Predict the structure.
Amino acid sequence: MNTLSENTYILVLYYSLHGHVKMLAEQIALGIESAGLEARLRTVPAISAVCEATEDDIPANGDIYCTEEDLAHCSGLLIGSPTRFGNMAAPLKYFIDGTAGLWLSGALVDKPAGAFTSSSSLHGGQESTLLTMMLPLLHQGMLFTGVPYSEPALTSTTTGGTPYGSSHVEGDTLSPEEMQICRSQGARLAMLAKKLCAPK
């Protein structure tokens, strides 16, 4: 059984090419921290069709790259990606595809998880992206959670935001509703992590 400790954190793992998913991740982190848990922001390197291309071990700026240890020891997980033809972007999928060791050990079983995304248009495949991002989390034995309609911003948003997870329709800034949905999702996942890790 997972238990809360002073090192308890929720991992916010994302890939962001143009910065929009990163904006979502930062708002989700605020929601997590408002619920009293640490939010650990991590990203993944880009991948290339050029076999010789490699990324530095540490990115030039922004959040550091996620390690298997970051993932193994989290008390909850939120994954974020831009929408790519109704699916998650290849760099995040590549990273997740390399977590078979965690699947074998059961390191993520019974931990809460959720997803978030951004698209360049209003009907750009946000919901299908969130649904496909759910699948590897379920294979890992995680407990997928979305955003319930008790969050009022879900019914007032005219841009991003779904019951499957936070989302954003590409623009320079997040709308107030998008920010609220992010914070609500982060706080809810942190609350669930606390309940799941509480001593029986």
